[in-house]
Amino acid sequence: MYTNVWYVAAFAKDLTDAPLQFRAMGADLVLFRDADGVAQCISNLCPHRGASLAQGCLYKDGTLACPFHGYRFNGQGECTVIPSRRDHDPQVVLPGVKTDAYAVQEKYGLIWVCLGDDPDAAAPIFDMPEADDDEYRGAMHEEIWEADYHTCKFTNLDLVHLPVVHGISFKSQENPIQPPDHKVTLFDDGYTSVHRSNTTPSAGVWSEMREKDTFVESTMRFWVPGFTLSGKLEIGGMGSGKFNVFYEFSTPIDENRTMMRYIFFRNYRIEPEFDNEHVRRNLQNAHQDKRIAEAQRPIGALTGPRPEGLYTHDEDKITLTYWTLMERMRDKGWQLDRAQLGDPDHTPRIIPSPARKASPDGWVFPAMATLAATAAREVRVADLSYVDINAIEPTRPKDYALSEPLVPHDPLTTATLEWDGDALKRIEAAPEFVQPMIIENAEKAARERGTNFVTVQLLEELQAQQTG
Q: How far apart, in whole angstroms, are the C-alpha atoms of residue 154 and residue 148?
């Protein structure tokens, strides 16, 4: 895991007039808004007795009070009041009483926190043009994946998994499982991958978005800030101007769990009534990836590419580009030293902060150690060996294994189902207290029938069964 990265700590809408606790890299932190409504982030551990500051209360002056003895801290981590000695300056009673504070930015409906001691050196938060474009509408979602954040990202960092996991084959290829030519461009804090293909259209209303056998262009980008993966698909076909855009932000809760947040944008059917279906459709693929990630072993984030791993020149080049970016952060001394990390519930984890770097002395809890830039570390990407499949002559006929075509990995049982627009209207017209039950029964019935599409006809059939 890496310091000096802008991570997404919360959706801005969730940070209101109460403190909000979150965990990142095993460290417990708390968000709150000061007297001016500006988001602040400090360590959640009170330096007095280790109480959870998130259980405390906010004062009108924008300070957060510890629930145990009332010590009050501002957004810079400075203790401003000790109630039992309120007529004394805290720095006189307890010289240096303080807690770690971190740089915060609120952009695009997200609370970004730079978890590290050098925010000026961190890669800046990228632009998200759709967020400020009135032609686009966005919908948000968040969930925890029981897998480390590298593994969560790897489920999306190649093209071959699209036909295998999601059933999205490349029909323009003689072998529809083989990825089309795609160019990967590395830049300072991320990379871009672009490919064009005639892919299998999604079922349901999504199949109506473009004509059959129309080519689409798909652009995938990764940024270090937020460990963000973005996909932009011209869903209506090239030249249509109809785009489905997603942003996936991954924040490592610890070595084994990841908070996944999403913003799904679209510039078609932007009526609010379409939000649920738009989120459902995007989560269908995400949940298929989730099942893959949570079953991978060994458990725990890698600290670099496996030197004995299997790599192919074309199919793994996106993954190796990702590791190149991680390598750059290791070279800056920003990688946490895993060997010195303890159980976060028994050994307090404190992320190095700017104030700690400026004044290293007088801190109650020690900061987590990082690996020195010159320390021995994992194999470098340039030293890995890979198989250049394109340079090897085929040894089997082109129709090999066609008698047993590839079957996508159980896509229906892991999918978040699609809903016909009229079926959604039926749900919205029902009383709110019965809507969850109708949705659950309808999706269960759809899966039992081998489909991932809920129609009005299905709802009517279920209603007829219930009424006898």
A: 10
> What CATH number has the domain bearing residue 279?
3.90.380.10
Query: Considering the entire predicted model, what is its pTM?
Result: 0.83
Residue 353 lies in a domain: no
The span from the CA of 349 to the CA of 345, in Å, is 9
CB neighbours of residue 279 within 10 Å? 17
87 to each of 49, 56, 97, 182, 234, how far by Cα in Å? 22, 22, 16, 67, 64
Alpha carbon distance 409, 386 (integer Å): 27
Picking from 51, 86, 114, the residue at the C-terminal end of a domain is 114
Q: How far apart are CA 71 and CA 53, in angstroms?
A: 9
Q: Extract the tokens encoding 266.
A: 């679209």
The residue segments making up the domain with residue 83 are: 6-114
Classify residue 450: in a domain, yes or no. yes
Distance of CA 398 to CAs 164, 199, 312, 401, Å? Answer: 19, 20, 20, 9
Spatial contact of 242 and 129, defined as CB atoms under 8 Å apart: no
In eight-state DSSP terms, residue 310 is -
pLDDT digits (tens, 9 = 90+) for 365-384: 999 999 887 766 777 888 88
CATH number of the domain at 92, please.
2.102.10.10
Is-contact 414 288, C-beta < 8 A? Answer: yes
Is 86 inside a domain boundary?
A: yes
Q: Which of 216, 202, 218, 205 is nearest to 274 (CA)?
A: 205
Asked if residue 260 is part of any domain, the answer here is: yes
Give the Cα separation of 59 and 419 in Å (integer): 46
Per the model's pLDDT, the better-predicted residue between 236 and 48 turns out to be 48
Q: Is 249 helix (H, G, I), strand (E, B) or coil?
A: strand
